[in-house]
């Protein structure tokens, strides 16, 4: 047994030396495994000495230096981990380390003998791989509490599992200031702190992000993927914010896997803002900060924090498309981190993610002549004027009353079809929440524009509505509302933002973002040119395509109908007709089509196809070969040319012109026979 154990140790050392860990890490990890699984207690004393000899032999026989190895995360053997007021104790020492976010990982499977504080009395709960939705096991004062999901020690944490442990707020701690200093009241938040422990099969690279804590997909992403070139380097506007403050806001994991208002009550106050409006606000501020002309090193911590939130949000949205529906301020600010992470990590699946609830998108829409914005902004001469409108909730409330209100003049806001049960009038609910949410929008909106993410966001009404919020004459509108709704108090005025910095960023840089969305070239008509020809002879084909942005374009030709570009032309001006030559070497029927690509790399759809028949001289029956079956038709073409042309057409007739003298006659016979005999 001892021999087998040391053989395993020897082979493992070789693998680790080749694939990236340090010697110290390797020995620490393997000693634990060998001691626990292979050796009798009497053998343990001599293990360290034998290991040293083994490692020395390995290092002498393999030319690998520490500097040549791949970068594996720093690892240490631990029997317990403490972070953010939470401690996990193991049954023995295990290799442990931290992701770039500071969250801990452990090489397992591992047995956790104690979680402190442990779940008790419906408080301080833990969950493994929580699923996004309505269930939680952290605190029974919050909705969705499910005792069956509560994790208590001892417990085995298996490979691919994330343990989320929390500390609850006690009744004596209210009001409790969250991470941005906003007071959490006893009816609005129950979690003080949270930490995440992830169980892996081996130590990750030293630049690994923590995998998403939700669900079982533990895909790893890396800082080496990050492309900082996507971040602008802009001069700060008249105001700015402290990098250190925002580094702290994004330092700890955001636990945000519940829907609607339940998420607010679950948010750990030491880790993240309590209310969704503030979530949206700080996300926007942070995204704007990293667009300024700081160095990459100065931006790094905030970038890592935003990307980690994007990873968590992305995997949450994959598991539950209805996590962030229309719910006032509770569910805003979750989309930008996904797009930000997709952009910097070059993860197209994040940028392309569609079909999940986005509160900002569900609350903004365009009016029309039958559903017209009462303020008249859409008819103003402002360059950003559109009929973009805000909707507090979709459809009707439980009383059958409409949630639409911007299509009605404030003089009607106290009448049917609006809610009349106490405080549900538009000036108390609809209009108030419009302002509560809109106040948080500008930062994330200008950041999305500056980062070129408007197209990936894929909801223009949202961006046009934020333009309206920032530039419309709200003072006049406010006075009209007050005239008919004297108790209306706001709470926020148009043109304001979550921070002065976000407002200044919007007003300073909005005008530079008018062309951030590129429109692909228009779909082209079918190309023009000969529809028949001979093998190995070049024929000219023409196409003409325009680009809506007047960008220069290049043409991509598909000569065989497989919808793959066979050749791109050089760039020409939009609308210029181009002519391209092509020859086919084999007889057959070909579908020729064309598309265009602009300077931004966006492509049009394919044109309709032009059918081209290519044949060999002498192939009178167009079967792709010159053979005995062509003789009768060849003879007919010579002796009865008019009959042949009427029956088979001029193209097939000209295939009889084997000597290419311009006529089909007896002088073609010798060449026909020569081709026939090949």
Structure, explained:
The protein has 678 residues and is α+β, with helices and mostly antiparallel strands. Helix content is 30%, strand content 16%. It contains 20 helices and 19 strands. Strands 1, 2, 3, 4, 5, 6, 7 and 10 form an 8-stranded mixed β-sheet that branches. Strand 8 and strand 9 form a beta hairpin. Residues 1-69 have low confidence and may be disordered.
**How many domains make up the 3D coordinates?**
6
Q: If you compute it from the alpha carbons, what radius of gyration comes out, rounded to the nearest whole angstrom?
A: 35 Å
The main sheet comes to: 8 strands, mixed
Structural class: alpha+beta
Overall number of strands: 19
Q: Mean pLDDT, nearest integer?
A: 86
Compute the separation of the termini in Å.
76 Å
């Amino acid at each position: 047994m001892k021999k087998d154990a040391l053989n395993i140790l020897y082979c493992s050392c070789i693998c680790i030396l080749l694939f990236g860990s340090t010697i110290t890490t390797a020995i620490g990890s393997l000693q634990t495994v060998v001691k626990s699984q292979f050796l009798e207690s009497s053998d343990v004393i001599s293990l360290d000495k034998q290991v040293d000899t083994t490692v020395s032999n390995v290092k002498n026989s393999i030319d690998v230096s520490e500097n040549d190895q791949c970068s594996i995360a720093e690892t240490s053997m631990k029997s317990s981990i403490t972070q953010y007021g939470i401690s996990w104790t193991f049954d023995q020492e295990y290799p442990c380390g931290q992701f770039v976010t500071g969250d801990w990982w452990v090489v397992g499977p591992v047995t956790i003998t104690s979680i402190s504080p442990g779940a008790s009395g419906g408080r301080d709960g833990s969950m493994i791989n929580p699923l996004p939705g309505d269930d939680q096991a952290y605190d029974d004062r919050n909705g969705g509490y499910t005792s069956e999901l509560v994790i208590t020690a001892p417990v085995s944490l298996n490979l691919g599992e994330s343990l989320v442990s929390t500390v609850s707020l006690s009744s004596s701690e209210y009001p409790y200031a969250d991470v941005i200093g906003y007071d959490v009241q006893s009816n609005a938040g129950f979690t003080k702190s949270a930490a995440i422990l992830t169980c892996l099969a081996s130590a990750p690279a030293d630049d690994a992000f923590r995998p998403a804590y939700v669900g079982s997909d533990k895909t790893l992403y890396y800082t080496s993927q990050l492309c900082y070139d996507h971040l602008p380097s802009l001069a700060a506007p008249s105001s700015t914010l402290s990098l250190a403050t925002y580094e702290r806001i994004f330092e700890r994991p955001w636990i945000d896997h519940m829907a609607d208002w339940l998420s607010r009550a679950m948010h750990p106050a030491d880790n993240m803002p309590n209310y969704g409006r503030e979530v949206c606000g700080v996300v926007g501020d942070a995204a704007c900060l990293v667009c300024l002309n700081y160095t990459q090193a100065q931006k790094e911590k905030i970038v890592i924090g935003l990307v980690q939130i994007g990873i968590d949000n992305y995997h949450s949205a994959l598991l539950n498309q209805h996590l962030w529906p229309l719910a006032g301020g509770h569910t805003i600010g979750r989309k930008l981190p996904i797009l930000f992470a997709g952009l910097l990590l070059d993860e197209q699946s994040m940028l392309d993610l569609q079909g999940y609830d986005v509160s900002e998108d569900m609350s903004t829409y365009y009016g029309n002549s039958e559903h017209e914005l009462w303020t008249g902004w859409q008819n103003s001469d402002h360059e950003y004027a559109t009929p973009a409108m805000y909707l507090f909730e979709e459809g009707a409330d439980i009383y059958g009353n409409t949630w639409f209100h911007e299509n009605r003049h404030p003089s009607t806001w106290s009448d049917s079809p609006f809610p009349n049960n106490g405080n549900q009038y538009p000036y108390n609910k609809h209009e108030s929440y419009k302002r509560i949410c809109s106040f948080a929008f500008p930062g994330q909106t200008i950041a999305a524009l500056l980062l070129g993410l408007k197209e990936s966001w894929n909801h223009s009404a949202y961006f046009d509505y934020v333009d309206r919020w920032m530039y419309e004459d709200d003072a006049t509108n406010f006075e009209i509302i007050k005239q008919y709704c004297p108790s209306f108090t706001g709470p926020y005025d148009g043109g304001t933002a979550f921070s002065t910095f976000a407002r200044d960023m919007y007003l300073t840089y909005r005008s530079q973002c008018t062309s951030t969305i590129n429109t692909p070239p228009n779909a082209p008509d079918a190309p023009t040119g000969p529809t028949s020809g001979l093998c190995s002879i070049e024929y000219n084909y023409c196409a003409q395509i325009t680009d809506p942005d007047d960008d220069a374009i290049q043409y991509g030709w598909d000569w065989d109908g497989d919808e793959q570009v066979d050749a791109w032309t050089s760039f020409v001006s939009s609308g210029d007709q181009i002519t391209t030559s092509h020859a086919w070497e084999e007889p057959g029927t070909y579908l020729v089509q064309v598309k265009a690509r602009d300077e931004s790399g966006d492509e049009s759809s394919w044109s309709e196809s032009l059918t081209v028949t290519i044949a060999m001289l002498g192939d009178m029956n167009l079967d792709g070969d010159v053979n005995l079956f062509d003789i009768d038709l060849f003879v007919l073409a010579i002796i009865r040319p008019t009959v042949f042309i009427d029956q088979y057409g001029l193209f097939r007739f000209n295939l009889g012109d084997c000597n290419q003298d311009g006529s089909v006659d007896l002088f073609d016979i010798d060449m026909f026979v020569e081709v026939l005999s090949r």
